[in-house]
Amino acid sequence: MSALDVSIQPQVINLLMDLQEEFGLTYLFIAHDLSVVVHISTRIAVMYLGCLVELGPALEVYHHPRHPYSKALLSAVPLPDPSKARAGRIILKGDVPTPINKPSGCVFRGRCPIARPACAEARPPLLEVATGHFAACPYHAEM
Q1: Is the model's pLDDT at 78 over the cut of 70?
Q2: What is the mean pLDDT of residues 81-97?
Q3: Which of 3, 72, 89, 142 is the most exposed place for a label (fewest CB within 10 A)?
């Protein structure tokens, strides 16, 4: 979608949504434009270094992210009015690890503001943090 002209993109999105409704289609839509993702999705999956870190209903993930990476990612979404400052913008520190040699345990731990030594031991499973909403962080409530 990002390669499409700004005037064409809404038309393509509307066509996809119309086809989905008419034929009962399911799409796997991979994108970085989070405003488009939440607009067309019923569920959102957030990945970091190829690993699923959060999964849930689109509006729930978009407005109430539970994984530290999802929170940082969504805090970076530009506001429609650039003169308004965003409260709570999360700036990640640390180096981005290589996908070829992923860190042990949680793949996000090197940049995570709430990481603990235990995060290096094993990759955390997806935990149900709300009905149908899963996050791969046992410490998500501390953010």
Answers
A1: yes
A2: 78
A3: 3
State how far the Cα of 56 lies from the Cα of 38, in Å rounded to an integer: 11
CB atoms within 10 A of CB 141: 10
9 contacts: CB under 8 Å, gap ≥ 6: 1, 36
DSSP code string of 116-131: -GGGGTSPPPPEEEET
Count of all residues that appear for the chain in the document: 143
Domain map (residue ranges) of the chain: 31-79+88-142
- Residue-wise pLDDT tens digits, 19-59: 999 999 999 988 888 888 898 899 999 999 999 999 999 99
Give ∠ CA 78-51-68 in degrees, rounded to 5: 45
Is 75 strand, coil or helix? helix
Take residue 84 and report the two structure tokens written for it. 């308004």
Q: What's the confidence (pLDDT) of residue 77?
A: 81
